[in-house]
């Protein structure tokens, strides 16, 4: 399934709009990743463990959104947007959300 941030797909004409679809993932960051990230923050450099967690959460959110679009019979998702938030009393949770418009083509 095509997922794009644009409002259309080149060479395709939208036949119908199936509705807005969402994908949401909330994941916890464990203590070992926090410790490693804290060391990176102190000494400098990138936190590979956090980057991997973010990548996984983003991919899962997109897959969930695609599954919901398929359930509506959509061919693609256009106008996709993504957002990230840190949640929890100790900021130990990461929320990734995405949304877009499920469409069918002629």
TrEMBL record:
NCBIfam families, per database record: PRK01119.1
Family under the similarity heading: Belongs to the UPF0145 family.
One Pfam family in the UniProt entry: YbjQ_1
InterPro entries tied to this protein: UPF0145_dom_sf, UPF0145_YbjQ-like
Superkingdom to which the source organism belongs: Bacteria
Species whose genome carries this gene: Enterococcus asini ATCC 700915
HAMAP family, per the entry: UPF0145
UniProt-recorded name of the protein: UPF0145 protein UAS_01463
Classification via PANTHER family: UPF0145 PROTEIN YBJQ
């Amino acid at each position: 399934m095509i997922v794009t941030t644009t409002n259309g797909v080149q060479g395709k004409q939208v036949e119908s709009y199936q509705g807005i679809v969402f994908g949401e993932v909330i994941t916890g960051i464990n203590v070992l990743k926090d410790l490693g990230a804290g060391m990176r923050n102190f000494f400098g450099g990138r936190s590979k463990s956090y980057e991997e967690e973010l990548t996984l959460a983003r991919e899962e959110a997109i897959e969930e959104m695609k599954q919901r679009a398929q359930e509506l019979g959509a061919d693609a998702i256009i106008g996709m947007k993504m957002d990230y938030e840190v949640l929890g009393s100790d900021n130990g949770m990461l929320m990734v959300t995405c949304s877009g418009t499920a469409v069918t083509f002629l």
